[in-house]
User: Fold this.
Amino acid sequence: MDINTQNGFRALADPTRRDILQRLACGEHTIAQLTEHFDMTRAAVRKHLTVLSDGGLITTRVSGRERFNALDPNGFAPIRDWINFFDQFWDNQLTNLKDIIENNDRKGPLQ
Amino acid sequence: MDINTQNGFRALADPTRRDILQRLACGEHTIAQLTEHFDMTRAAVRKHLTVLSDGGLITTRVSGRERFNALDPNGFAPIRDWINFFDQFWDNQLTNLKDIIENNDRKGPLQ
DNA sequence: TTAATATGATACCAAATGGTATCGGATGGA
DNA sequence: TCCATCCGATACCATTTGGTATCATATTAA
Assistant:
């Protein structure tokens, strides 16, 4: 359905990419700066950055021969929303559980 | 680092698996019931359910020859926590932006 | 008992993924 | 100018992933 949500979740599925996001939380970094912290080549890090960009989780600013990568706050919204849908479900489940305990009669999706 | 968080994010990376989770929000389903809604074999659905179980997002109850799959509320906690870390970051960024506008002097991680 | 059903298990396949190696082009500093 | 460096692009490789096909097993209903 939603290709942006899909790319966002896909970007978060790799531990290296989640690590990159946490490092970017301290400010923007170039590809070379990020590569220092990982046991892989610059090209591999660059690939991860492309996936993160496709997921809308980072933005890029090119200055001279350097490429600065930074977090994109908006990109996290679809993911947070998707998770929140389930939070609402937990609340309903707890409400149902409360009903079951108090009224000894089940009404909700637990059947 | 955290293998459980990793398995959780990996489980959410596939659109079929996210679809399964949303269907399970309406109550538990057997493998055959879930398979009706997808254009793939029962074995493929079963594989997705294994990944979801590895991620701690679902639990399983076997009754006779049927296998009932249901959501596991606890499994979503690590993912929500990880996302929340960035929400806090956005708040800080907004605070910094406010400082910049009001005091015309930058203090935070934007350098 | 017998047949239909719901699943488990295994082998297998094509495509995506994560990674390296290598070449080349711009840019910045001495 | 000259060279180091930061990056883009491409080709290539091994592994993982998403999926099918097939056969075996256990359970339920008639």
User: Anything to note?
Assistant: Confidence is low (pLDDT under 50) at residues 103-111 of chain B. Helices of chain B lie at 3-12, 15-24, 31-35, 42-54, 77-103.
